[in-house]
Design a protein that fits this description.
With 146 residues, this protein is mostly helical. This is Putative Ocs element-binding factor. GO terms for molecular function: DNA-binding transcription factor activity; protein heterodimerization activity; transcription cis-regulatory region binding.
Amino acid sequence: MASKQRPATSSGSDSDPRYAMFDERKRKRMISNRESARRSRMRKQKQLEDGINEVSQLQNEINKLTQTINTTTQRYVEIESANNILRAQAMELTDRLRSLNSVLHIAEEVSGMALDIPEIPDPLPNPWQVPCPLQPIMASAEMFQY
């Protein structure tokens, strides 16, 4: 029985063209894998940078919105305060007008002359106002957790 033997002229893959082709394919695969890994790392780095940029933009937007909310809330409180003062003044003036009208009614009875006494309208007709006072919605930057 004859067994196959390797040529004794050189050691293993150095001279055998089959091994040389195998080594060349292995080397090309390694280079390709390294390049693929490099591209993958670059993609991940870009995704990370894009995510950081998006977070930064969203934080800036949150800060702007928070500032707008705070300014609007402050303006609302100022206007509500001014409205409360005007409502109180309107009620006071209405009470004075009622007092004056009652004096006119007494004068009309005492003098016997008919006086033209106007009706007093409702001082605060607000059909859009809800029956209970609204509490302003307060917002602050601490409400948003990153």
